[in-house]
Protein backbone atom coordinates (compact mmCIF):
# COMPACT_ATOMS: atom_id res chain seq x y z
CA UNK A 1 0.00 0.00 0.00
CA UNK A 2 1.26 3.48 -0.89
CA UNK A 3 0.05 6.61 0.88
CA UNK A 4 0.32 9.86 -1.03
CA UNK A 5 1.35 12.52 1.48
CA UNK A 6 0.95 16.08 0.27
CA UNK A 7 4.37 17.59 0.90
CA UNK A 8 7.00 19.93 -0.47
CA UNK A 9 8.47 19.79 -3.07
CA UNK A 10 5.90 17.16 -4.25
CA UNK A 11 3.88 14.25 -2.85
CA UNK A 12 5.83 11.84 -0.65
CA UNK A 13 4.90 8.23 -1.48
CA UNK A 14 4.87 6.56 1.93
CA UNK A 15 5.00 2.78 2.15
CA UNK A 16 3.97 2.05 5.76
CA UNK A 17 5.60 -1.40 5.59
CA UNK A 18 9.00 0.18 4.94
CA UNK A 19 8.83 3.37 7.01
CA UNK A 20 10.00 4.26 10.50
CA UNK A 21 9.61 7.37 12.62
CA UNK A 22 12.78 8.93 14.05
CA UNK A 23 12.38 11.34 16.96
CA UNK A 24 15.64 13.19 17.40
CA UNK A 25 16.94 14.21 20.85
CA UNK A 26 13.69 15.25 22.59
CA UNK A 27 15.60 15.05 25.87
CA UNK A 28 15.54 17.36 28.86
CA UNK A 29 19.11 18.55 28.02
CA UNK A 30 17.73 20.58 25.12
CA UNK A 31 14.22 21.40 26.26
CA UNK A 32 14.42 22.30 29.95
CA UNK A 33 16.30 25.08 31.77
CA UNK A 34 19.66 24.03 33.18
CA UNK A 35 20.55 21.62 30.37
CA UNK A 36 22.96 21.68 27.45
CA UNK A 37 20.83 23.95 25.27
CA UNK A 38 20.49 26.46 28.10
CA UNK A 39 24.19 26.39 28.92
CA UNK A 40 24.96 27.24 25.27
CA UNK A 41 23.02 30.47 25.81
CA UNK A 42 19.73 29.54 24.13
CA UNK A 43 16.12 30.30 25.04
CA UNK A 44 14.98 26.71 25.52
CA UNK A 45 11.31 27.60 26.02
CA UNK A 46 10.85 27.76 22.22
CA UNK A 47 11.27 23.99 21.93
CA UNK A 48 8.45 22.94 24.25
CA UNK A 49 5.77 23.98 21.77
CA UNK A 50 6.38 20.97 19.50
CA UNK A 51 5.82 18.43 22.28
CA UNK A 52 2.04 18.00 21.58
CA UNK A 53 2.55 17.63 17.81
CA UNK A 54 5.39 15.17 18.33
CA UNK A 55 3.25 13.19 20.77
CA UNK A 56 0.46 13.03 18.16
CA UNK A 57 2.96 11.87 15.51
CA UNK A 58 4.25 9.14 17.81
CA UNK A 59 0.65 8.11 18.55
CA UNK A 60 -0.06 7.85 14.79
CA UNK A 61 2.89 5.49 14.25
CA UNK A 62 1.92 3.43 17.31
CA UNK A 63 -1.67 3.17 16.08
CA UNK A 64 -0.48 1.75 12.76
CA UNK A 65 2.09 -0.57 14.36
CA UNK A 66 4.99 1.18 12.61
CA UNK A 67 8.52 1.25 14.05
CA UNK A 68 9.68 4.20 16.16
CA UNK A 69 13.28 5.17 16.91
CA UNK A 70 14.08 7.69 19.66
CA UNK A 71 17.56 9.20 19.79
CA UNK A 72 19.39 10.97 22.59
CA UNK A 73 22.58 12.96 22.23
CA UNK A 74 24.59 11.25 24.94
CA UNK A 75 28.18 10.64 25.96
CA UNK A 76 29.73 7.98 28.13
CA UNK A 77 30.44 9.04 31.73
CA UNK A 78 34.21 8.82 31.06
CA UNK A 79 33.78 11.10 28.01
CA UNK A 80 35.78 8.65 25.88
CA UNK A 81 33.33 9.26 23.03
CA UNK A 82 33.41 13.06 23.31
CA UNK A 83 36.21 14.59 21.26
CA UNK A 84 37.86 17.69 22.77
CA UNK A 85 36.87 19.52 19.59
CA UNK A 86 33.26 19.14 20.75
CA UNK A 87 33.74 19.56 24.50
CA UNK A 88 36.00 22.61 24.38
CA UNK A 89 34.09 24.52 21.67
CA UNK A 90 32.97 28.03 22.58
CA UNK A 91 32.41 29.50 26.01
CA UNK A 92 29.33 27.73 27.41
CA UNK A 93 28.26 28.21 31.02
CA UNK A 94 28.88 24.50 31.60
CA UNK A 95 30.67 21.99 29.38
CA UNK A 96 29.64 18.44 28.45
CA UNK A 97 30.30 16.27 31.51
CA UNK A 98 30.07 19.14 34.03
CA UNK A 99 27.57 18.87 36.88
CA UNK A 100 24.41 20.85 36.09
CA UNK A 101 20.90 21.31 37.45
CA UNK A 102 19.80 17.97 35.93
CA UNK A 103 22.99 16.00 36.59
CA UNK A 104 26.02 15.88 34.33
CA UNK A 105 25.51 17.73 31.03
CA UNK A 106 24.77 15.40 28.07
CA UNK A 107 25.89 12.25 29.89
CA UNK A 108 24.04 8.95 29.41
CA UNK A 109 21.91 7.94 32.36
CA UNK A 110 21.72 11.40 33.94
CA UNK A 111 18.28 12.96 34.60
CA UNK A 112 18.86 15.62 31.94
CA UNK A 113 19.58 12.95 29.34
CA UNK A 114 16.08 11.44 29.64
CA UNK A 115 13.50 12.00 26.94
CA UNK A 116 10.77 14.35 28.15
CA UNK A 117 8.04 12.40 29.93
CA UNK A 118 5.30 13.32 27.39
CA UNK A 119 7.31 11.54 24.65
CA UNK A 120 8.70 8.65 26.68
CA UNK A 121 9.58 5.61 24.55
CA UNK A 122 7.23 2.64 24.86
CA UNK A 123 8.37 -0.95 25.32
CA UNK A 124 9.76 -2.33 22.07
CA UNK A 125 10.70 1.04 20.60
CA UNK A 126 14.35 1.58 19.72
CA UNK A 127 16.32 4.09 21.81
CA UNK A 128 19.68 5.17 20.39
CA UNK A 129 22.36 7.03 22.33
CA UNK A 130 24.37 8.98 19.79
CA UNK A 131 27.63 10.77 20.55
CA UNK A 132 27.46 12.86 17.39
CA UNK A 133 24.99 15.22 15.83
CA UNK A 134 24.06 12.66 13.19
CA UNK A 135 22.16 9.54 14.25
CA UNK A 136 24.29 7.07 12.27
CA UNK A 137 27.71 8.01 13.61
CA UNK A 138 28.89 5.28 16.05
CA UNK A 139 25.39 3.89 16.68
CA UNK A 140 24.77 0.81 14.53
CA UNK A 141 21.37 2.26 13.56
CA UNK A 142 21.76 1.62 9.81
CA UNK A 143 22.17 -2.11 10.40
CA UNK A 144 19.20 -2.11 12.81
CA UNK A 145 16.97 -0.40 10.22
CA UNK A 146 18.22 -2.76 7.52
CA UNK A 147 17.20 -5.75 9.64
CA UNK A 148 13.67 -4.29 9.72
CA UNK A 149 13.61 -3.55 5.94
CA UNK A 150 13.18 0.18 6.60
CA UNK A 151 13.88 2.38 3.56
CA UNK A 152 11.86 5.49 4.46
CA UNK A 153 12.31 7.73 7.50
CA UNK A 154 9.90 10.27 8.92
CA UNK A 155 11.71 12.84 11.06
CA UNK A 156 10.79 14.89 14.13
CA UNK A 157 12.77 16.44 16.97
CA UNK A 158 15.39 19.05 17.77
CA UNK A 159 17.10 21.04 16.63
CA UNK A 160 16.05 21.37 13.02
CA UNK A 161 19.30 22.71 11.62
CA UNK A 162 21.70 20.79 13.85
CA UNK A 163 20.91 17.16 14.78
CA UNK A 164 17.78 16.74 12.65
CA UNK A 165 19.29 18.10 9.45
CA UNK A 166 22.60 16.27 10.03
CA UNK A 167 20.71 13.00 10.55
CA UNK A 168 18.63 13.56 7.41
CA UNK A 169 21.76 14.21 5.37
CA UNK A 170 23.45 11.11 6.78
CA UNK A 171 20.28 9.15 5.93
CA UNK A 172 20.44 10.42 2.34
CA UNK A 173 23.91 9.02 1.92
CA UNK A 174 22.70 5.66 3.20
CA UNK A 175 19.83 5.48 0.70
CA UNK A 176 16.79 6.42 2.81
CA UNK A 177 13.93 8.62 1.64
CA UNK A 178 13.30 11.29 4.27
CA UNK A 179 10.18 13.22 5.24
CA UNK A 180 10.42 15.97 7.87
CA UNK A 181 7.31 16.86 9.88
CA UNK A 182 7.58 20.65 10.02
CA UNK A 183 5.50 21.25 13.14
CA UNK A 184 7.22 18.44 15.05
CA UNK A 185 10.68 20.00 14.76
CA UNK A 186 12.06 23.20 16.25
CA UNK A 187 15.15 25.33 16.58
CA UNK A 188 16.35 27.93 19.06
CA UNK A 189 16.46 30.22 16.00
CA UNK A 190 13.21 30.46 13.99
CA UNK A 191 15.06 31.74 10.95
CA UNK A 192 17.39 28.71 11.01
CA UNK A 193 14.42 26.34 11.18
CA UNK A 194 12.84 28.01 8.16
CA UNK A 195 16.13 28.05 6.24
CA UNK A 196 16.88 24.40 7.04
CA UNK A 197 13.49 23.32 5.73
CA UNK A 198 14.00 25.35 2.56
CA UNK A 199 17.45 23.74 2.06
CA UNK A 200 15.93 20.27 2.48
CA UNK A 201 13.15 20.69 -0.08
CA UNK A 202 15.02 22.89 -2.60
CA UNK A 203 16.33 21.54 -5.89
CA UNK A 204 13.57 18.96 -6.21
CA UNK A 205 14.05 17.66 -2.65
CA UNK A 206 17.84 17.52 -2.56
CA UNK A 207 17.67 16.23 1.05
CA UNK A 208 14.03 15.19 1.27
CA UNK A 209 10.43 16.27 1.75
CA UNK A 210 8.67 18.39 4.37
CA UNK A 211 5.04 18.62 5.45
CA UNK A 212 2.92 19.45 8.51
CA UNK A 213 1.55 16.58 10.63
CA UNK A 214 -2.02 17.21 9.42
CA UNK A 215 -1.04 16.19 5.86
CA UNK A 216 0.40 12.90 7.07
CA UNK A 217 -2.74 12.24 9.15
CA UNK A 218 -4.89 13.04 6.09
CA UNK A 219 -2.96 10.52 3.99
CA UNK A 220 -3.61 7.78 6.58
CA UNK A 221 -7.31 8.75 6.76
CA UNK A 222 -7.62 8.69 2.96
CA UNK A 223 -6.04 5.25 2.83
CA UNK A 224 -8.60 4.01 5.38
CA UNK A 225 -11.49 5.45 3.32
CA UNK A 226 -10.11 3.94 0.09
CA UNK A 227 -9.75 0.61 1.88
N1 LIG B 1 22.79 23.26 19.85
C1 LIG B 1 21.89 22.75 19.04
O1 LIG B 1 21.13 23.47 18.36
N2 LIG B 1 21.73 21.40 18.94
C2 LIG B 1 22.54 20.44 19.50
O2 LIG B 1 23.57 20.71 20.09
N3 LIG B 1 22.12 19.13 19.38
C3 LIG B 1 20.95 18.75 18.71
O3 LIG B 1 20.48 19.40 17.78
N4 LIG B 1 20.33 17.65 19.16
What key attributes describe this structure?
33% helix; 227 residues; binds tricarbonodiimidic diamide; alpha/beta; single chain; six-stranded parallel sheet
Number of strand segments: 10
Taking the alpha carbons of the first and last residues, their distance comes to: 10 Å
Helix content: 25-40%
Largest sheet properties? 6 strands, parallel
In order across it, which strands form the biggest sheet? 7-4-3-8-9-10
Strand content: 15-25%
**Bound compounds:** tricarbonodiimidic diamide
Radius of gyration: 17 Å
Low-confidence stretches: none
User: How large is the count of helical segments?
Assistant: 8
Order of helices and strands: EEEHHHEHEEEHEHEHEH
Structural class category: alpha/beta
Shape verdict: globular
Mean pLDDT: 97
Task: Please provide a written account of the structure.
- The protein is an alpha/beta fold.
- It has helices at about 30, 35-40, 50-65, 85, 140-145, 160-175, 190-205, 215-225; strands at about 5, 10-15, 20-25, 70-75, 100, 105, 125-130, 150-160, 175-185, 210.
- The chain has 8 helices and 10 strands.
- A 6-stranded parallel beta sheet has the order 7-4-3-8-9-10, sandwiched between helices. It has a two-stranded antiparallel sheet with strand order 1-2. A two-stranded antiparallel sheet has the order 5-6.
- It is globular and about 55 Å long.
- The structure holds tricarbonodiimidic diamide.
- Tricarbonodiimidic diamide (TIU) binds near residues 25, 40, 73, 159 and 188.
